[in-house]
Amino acid sequence: MGAFFVEGNLTLATDGWDTFWSSATSDEVLVAGDGQRNSTLDRFWREQLERVAADARVIDVACGAGSVARQIVQTPALCVGVDLSINALSRLDQLEQGITPVAADSSSLPFPSQCFDFVFSQFGVEYAGILGVLECSRILAPGGVLKFLSHCKDSSIQKSVARDLLNVNLTLTSNFFPAAVQLAQALSSREQDQINAAAEVFNPAEQEVRLGAKIVPDNFAGYTYLGLQKLLRQWEQHEPQDVISWLNAMRHEAESAAARLTTMQSAALDDEALKEINQALSEAGLPLLEKREVASVETNMLLAWELSQCQ
Ligand SMILES: C[S@@+](CC[C@H](N)C(=O)[O-])C[C@H]1O[C@@H](n2cnc3c(N)ncnc32)[C@H](O)[C@@H]1O
Questions:
Q1: What is the pTM of this model?
Q2: Nearest to residue 125, comparing CAs of 83, 89, 66?
Q3: Topology, domain 5-155+268-309
Q4: Which of 89, 127, 161, 264 has most ligand 1 atoms within 8 Å of its beta carbon, as the pocket-test mutant?
Q5: Which of 3, 14, 60, 200 has the fewest CB atoms within 10 Å, counting from its CB?
């Protein structure tokens, strides 16, 4: 891994994003059902990025693994990707796309004012709220372009975030993990009394997850529930400690997913939030943001808000 700049006393991401980037199977945050890149987003950014001039200085704010910046065809004079997650930036760095990774919080960007010609963010700047937008606006050079695709309330993404959050939370609030660990310990003791006592605690928790969550292999509760069922069926083939380690890892994953999904929900903008952002921009003497709704080309459902600054 190459070196990258870390701004001052950076507090590492604790909201689940760093864990997400350490284990994500894709470098894209939002993929279609078949695991492919999202065609609506690709089309949107292709049109924006076509206009990037060879001498432009561009920045992808809250870039993750550079899903957007990686689509720039003609290498600009300077291309920076900023994110709070070191794991995201390590991925970006490994992809070697000529994007300079910078670890920083979007609410305090370590760049002089007016030093970028194109400032953009996909599902990122809104995590830092008003301060993030003010910072992006501050670093934009006169005549430059500022373009965000942002989470918005009532979008199809937010609906699926709400479903995922309910599903993950169920595994955490139902006593499922502690009861499953207790059961694994009892099974390994081979003491029937201990097994019966542990099963009495585990069964209601198991039932709560099974009845409350939609148990399909590709949602979290389903994956965990079915995974545990399989382990219990083939109990003799596993070391008890491995089963307990797996359960602890799944619990950690559930906690970090719940944190990440919660920040995704609270980052989503509505008209009131946009009004507050524009109020802050106006007070700082900066141009306001204009919104346009972006719908999925496949489903026609609301996907995001396009936010642009009118120069
Ligand atoms: C939904 S992901 C989007 C990543 C990327 N833009 C993409 O579309 O693939 C949100 C990203 O914002 C980053 N992030 C969250 N809060 C941030 C902050 N205050 N400053 C910088 N990055 C932040 C997370 O680490 C994560 O990589």
A1: 0.88
A2: 83
A3: Rossmann fold (3.40.50)
A4: 127
A5: 3
